[in-house]
Write a structure and sequence with these properties.
single chain, mainly alpha
């Protein structure tokens, strides 16, 4: 399978990242809410532990939307998708170290790690949207960490909004692409 066709399959199978971004936005909003009206410790637990449920919930949402939620065996980007999925959990020790130094840096540090995690999605999906999302997350995380308000949850609320915007932007892009280039009737995406 050629790269362009493989990227198109990724875009169509995962609906431009819609489900994953929507699930992630919901998780960040839940963590922000717990951090705002609950405890810092519980807010961190919601985001870190909940992060391990993003893939299963994304798969469920995609199936509920009528998508197969998987790539074909011959898609050359399957291995990249797996590697990208493991990049964020591997960065969590750095996020933890930042938070141990200064608790207000938890979300900004996580935003930088998340932005770095999304950069390869640009190639995986063949969508510049993910480069913009990665840049926005990194810039906002650095800005909040260096000069942001002393609010613990500002980064979480901002990330939830950025992910939500990316979810609907990715969905709209794929819907436009499908209208411009209709998929064959046998396309299981």
């Amino acid at each position: 399978m050629e790269i362009g066709a493989a990227q198109k399959e990724v875009r169509f199978a995962f609906h431009g990242g819609f489900a994953g971004q929507l699930v992630s936005a919901t998780l960040w909003a839940a963590s922000a809410a717990v951090g705002t009206w609950g405890t810092t410790r519980n807010a961190i637990l919601v985001l870190v532990l909940g992060g391990f449920l993003i893939f299963p919930f994304t798969t469920l949402l995609l199936r509920a939307l009528g998508h197969r939620a998987a790539l074909s065996r011959d898609n050359t980007l399957n291995q990249l998708a797996v590697q990208v999925a493991f990049s964020l959990p591997l960065a969590l020790p750095v996020v933890g170290a930042a938070a141990l130094y200064r608790i207000e840096w938890f979300y900004p540090a996580f935003m930088v790690a998340l932005g770095a995690h999304y950069l390869p999605f640009t190639f995986l999906y063949g969508m510049r949207l993910f480069a913009a999302l990665a840049g926005a997350l990194v810039a906002a995380g650095v800005g909040l960490g260096m000069r942001g308000p002393p609010s613990f949850t500002a980064g979480a609320w901002l990330t939830a909004l950025l992910l939500l915007a990316a979810a609907f932007a990715g969905r709209a892009a794929v819907l436009r692409e499908r209208q411009a280039w209709p998929a064959p009737e046998a396309d299981p995406c």
